[in-house]
Specification:
Blueprint (H helix, E strand, L loop, with lengths): L1 E6 L3 E7 L15 E6 L1 H11 L4 E7 L3 H13 L6 E3 L5 E7 L5 E6 L8 H6 L1 H5 L1 E7 L4 H13 L8 E5 L8 H6 E6 L1 H7 L11 H9 L6 E4 L5 E4 L4 E4 L12 H14 L4 H16 L11 H6 L1
Parallel strand pairs: 1-4, 1-8, 2-6, 4-5, 8-9, 9-10, 10-11
Antiparallel strand pairs: 2-3, 6-7, 11-12, 12-13
The chain binds adenosine-5'-diphosphate.
Amino acid sequence: MTAIAVLGSTNMDLVAYVARAPGRGETVTGREFRTVPGGKGANQAVAAARLGARTALLARVGDDDYGRLLLDSQATAGVDTAGVLVGGAPTGVALITVDPSGDNSIVVSQGANARLTPDDVRAAAGLLAAARVVSLQLEIPLETVAEVVRAAGAGFGGRPGPRVVLNPSPTAPLPTDVLAACDPLVVNEHEARFLLSDAPVGSSDDPEEWADALLSRGPRSVVVTLGAEGALVADGDRTVLVPSPAVTAVDTTGAGDAFTGALAWRLGVGDDLPTAVRFAVRVGAAAVTRAGAQASFPSAGEVAAL
Ligand code: ADP
């Protein structure tokens, strides 16, 4: 068994450090520029593998230089890349600006990520059957995510399928069956407000109200990440705030992915949800203390030392 399978996007991140992000129609002059591996799926897989998790990635890259670099970086982090498909479109890219406070703005060009299909999921049944947890995000087609949820719910040869963790980012309306499978649904403030935008609670400033309202929409559990404040866990029995360690934020790119990759791993090795979240907030906090996404993700030793 692998502790987790991550199914999602791999991008090459093109990162410019700027005094401030450009407004509409505006050009700003950047400072430093870096090309770094990213994509929410790839980020989560690297976060988990760097902590020591047995991790498999199911993704699609282009048959191009960026694709080869991305495969290399996954393998270097210790991710099993046998499930990464090659070709069909150019490798996805993300254009990112980071301002001096560490806040970021991102444009994703999906490329091969948009060609990861439900058929690819069906062909990867062995990979899913071998995982205790499958971690999903929305930088790939929603119908592909829905197929994973269906397969996980049906199980494999009489055995239950993997537990489903979903971070619905970038935001999109979620089908009822996808929502119902999440255990947990992991959202940040923006994603929580989006999913609740059809109800008065969407304009509340109380994250506990968001967590409870999201839970009533069907997921088995909900985690709301709150940046420096930590994360709220709602499992139906209670809603608990898990504070994050106080750190100096340098670059928040990928913090949510580090958090979710760590969370999925801890669930995969048998932690209960609050215990897994207590670990994941430390991983998220460590990740914001360094520049970049994957480059900022900590080892287990670094998390213990925080
Ligand atoms: P996202 O990156 O998706 O916007 P958050 O900003 O909520 O998500 O960050 C995810 C997690 O990373 C938080 O729950 C927290 O554990 C950690 N984190 C993020 N920003 C900080 C910060 N400034 N200080 C400490 N921890 C942070």
